[in-house]
Amino acid sequence: MTTDFIKALSCADDYDPNSMPVDKARKHIRDYLSPVSTKETLPLRSSLGRVLAEDIFSPVNVPNHDNSAMDGYAIASADIRPGETRLKIVGTAFAGRAFEGKVKPGECVRIMTGAVMPPECDTVVIQEHVQVEGDVMVFGDGVKPGQNMRFAGEDLKQGQVVFPVGHLVRPADLGLIASLGIGEVRVFRKLRVAFFSTGDELASIGQALEPGQVYDSNRYTIYGMLARLGVEILDMGVVRDDPKLLEQALKEAAASADVILTSGGVSVGEADFMKQLLNDLGQVVFWKIAMKPGRPLAYGKIDQAHYFGLPGNPVSVMVTFYQFVRDALLVLMGQPTPPALPLLNATCTDALKKAPGRTEFQRGVLLADQDGVWKVRPIGNQGSGVLRSMSEANCFIVLPDTNAGVAAGEMVQVQILEGLI
Ligand code: AMP
Ligand code: MG
Q1: Is 239 exposed, middle or buried (0-12, 13-18, 19+ CB in 10 A)?
Q2: Are 177 and 56 in contact (CB under 8 A)?
Q3: Stated pTM of the model
Q4: pLDDT tens sequence across 46-76
Q5: Per-chain residues with Cβ under 5 A from ion ligand 2
Q6: What is the dihedral of CA 52, 53, 55, 57, to 10 degrees?
Q7: Ligand 2 centre and the CA of 259: distance in Å?
């Protein structure tokens, strides 16, 4: 952190760690993120999901020739006559094999989709609109000059910036970059994210459960969410609620990762303990976010590493990850302004209880009714410990601070989870 994070925050007029709106917390975090800067060169396929470190320019026009958009006949529009036009067929242009001759007035060429347009021609008449009589092609009124052609550079012009620095490479982009003949790209290095679960009550898979113990599930959901983002993952397992062990784990994580995620230990009952520890190790603020689930959240820096202390409840972990960590990781990966998760409107099938003053992320199932209208059905048990609600859900029902409850049939906003979880 270049400036004193805690000092800077506490000077902000409206800073209140006990009632931090979701958007404000997101903004405060955004202000302190420092993206990776190391670049590497990768073969095109390996760049999927990575962030471009240099602009990609088009070295060529795409397409590189005027060509036909349809199967039909290439003609010169000057030959079009009112009523009926008759032209002599003098050859064929195939995709990848151009017509070599000259097309004189009164002549035309059979042409296939993607074939280079003979330079004398400027229009394609589709084959369904013509009649062929021997070596003569006939068509009636309605042909417009220039129709059914693709123009050189129509997709991309030579020298044009195709993708700017900071662009996240998706499947269509791989194809577009390939269409330019580019086989290697410069991307930012992978972000390294270390994480561990905290809690004396946690058992790992393979251990028998003692009374009062639960299996550490956060380790697996966090792994899954990080894997989807394509970061390098350092899974540090479970750390007991022991200041010495926690300190050791945090130091180790800070030495080897760009980002540290922990789950548990930031709720009111336990925060003092972590607060003390993090006070000595770095600059971390503890927020009570005006949201449900996911009220407690810690954020700051430990040495050079960004730190997110997520709540322990399995649903809260996922909600806070998607609302705060995901966006922050995308920025740290080199994307300057990651697009916000879209909010879509849907009719809520059931009434929802909601107190004003906090944002709620209830779990729902988005489904199309018989008429194809999108509706959202809330999941029954919205408890923040009920992870099954996340598995059953395919969206969050996002209820803003001001909302004071929803009647059945009312419109709500949803965030689709497909592709996220
Ligand atoms: P905490 O935030 O540490 O107070 O934890 C809140 C609740 O989440 C408690 O019921 C914990 O047992 C549970 N919890 C914390 N960490 C995990 C974990 N890694 N896996 C499953 N449940 C957890
Ligand atoms: Mg705990």
Answers
A1: buried
A2: yes
A3: 0.89
A4: 999 999 999 999 999 999 999 999 999 999 9
A5: 199, 264-265, 312
A6: -70
A7: 21
